[in-house]
Amino acid sequence: MTELLGHDHVKQHLARIAVAQSPAHAYLFLGPAAVGKYGVARWFVQSLLCTGEARPCGVCKSCRTLADANHPDLQVLQPLDGKTTIAVEQVRTAISFFNTRPYAGAFKALIIRDGRHLGTEAQNALLKTLEEPPPFGLILMLAEREEDVLETILSRCQTVRFGLLSDTEILPLIAARELPPLEAFLLKHRYGGRIGALTAALAETETGSATRTEAFLGWARQFAEAPHGRLRYLAGMGLSEYEPARALLADWIAYLKVLNALRDASAAPPDLPDSLPRLMRALSVRDNMRLTADLLQLQSELKPGMNYLLQVEQALLSFPMIEV
Ligand SMILES: [Zn+2]
Question: pLDDT per residue over 48-58, tens digit each?
């Protein structure tokens, strides 16, 4: 199961807790998006509820029902289809699930997939349960940043930190696909140690090969465009939602990183078009750093409902114009 690659240190720590059957009432799994926090959270719950010898055994009744995603002692809280936040009503339902005795095992677990999806009212509804948890209760809150979680909740959770996976863990997955060299290079730099996002992107390459390369080269061509050409490029993205805008900024930040990586000519993939090294040389390290800092700033300020299209347009127009 690729979702469970890496995080050996964290898994060893959680495995000891599972063997001792002595979890804390609440954990905050803190770390970058798509590094496998959710996979580890499910694995931890499975280990706690497993009735086999080597936890998780994968064959006992509890392990099998958990793999089918319908274990009666586990609930996962995430926004309903088409929503960006978890409704307070969902939290209330989850709390009443949480407060009744376990159906099969010794614990009842609630996984909150992303603390960012809980508004203040929803977090406050959860707080009372955290203050007086039932003895069998276990809450696993996943979040990218501490700021995504109310301080009153933070103080009641044990924090478990997740980092990016290393190149050694990631690269064999990419190499196994035998992709064109530039596509492989882009995947490494776009997703790095974010195993969840990388696995999803690798699955996409099965269906629509080399689209990532085209997207990157299309973006690179913008440097030679006057403002109206750049706006036409952005209009072609069909950006009308918040999540695509957020993903687009993440792509641009990664592309700038790729341009920097290409300064080391020995690392350049052999199928790189000639225009790219020229662009990379013309865009100074200082320019690259400034653009990256601006985009990171914009990414942290981007909120659903704000006029993100205007903000993204301004960011694109601030790119220097470079003839390539
Ligand atoms: Zn088992």
Answer: 999 998 899 99
Integer Cα distance of 300 and 148 in angstroms: 12
Cα 160 to the center of its chain, rounded Å: 16
Amino acid 165 reads: L
C-alpha of residue 159 to centroid of ligand 1, in Å: 26
Long-range contact pairs involving 126-135 (C-beta distance under 8 Å, separation at least 24): 126/91, 126/95, 126/153, 127/152, 127/153, 129/95, 129/98, 129/99, 130/25, 130/26, 130/156, 130/157, 131/156, 133/25, 133/26, 134/98, 134/99, 134/108
Task: Tell me the C-alpha distance between 104 and 102, whole Å.
Answer: 6
Report CA(50)–ligand 1 centroid distance (Å).
4
Cα 24 to averaged position of ligand 1 atoms, centre (Å): 21
Domain range annotation of the chain: 2-161, 167-317
The pLDDT tens digits of the residues spanning 215-258 come to 899 999 999 999 999 999 998 887 878 888 888 998 999 999 98
- Tell me the DSSP string of 212-234: HHHHHHHHHHGGG--HHHHHHHH
> Is 0.90 surpassed by the pTM of this model?
no
The answer as to CATH 3.40.50.300 being correct for domain 2-161 is yes
Ligand 1 centroid to 68 CA: how many Å? Answer: 13
Measured in angstroms, how far is the CA atom of residue 93 from the centroid of ligand 1?
28
CA distance 68 to 3: 16
Q: Which amino acid is at 88?
A: V
Ligand 1 centre to CA of 96 (Å) is 26
Cα-to-centroid distance, 43 and ligand 1 (Å): 11
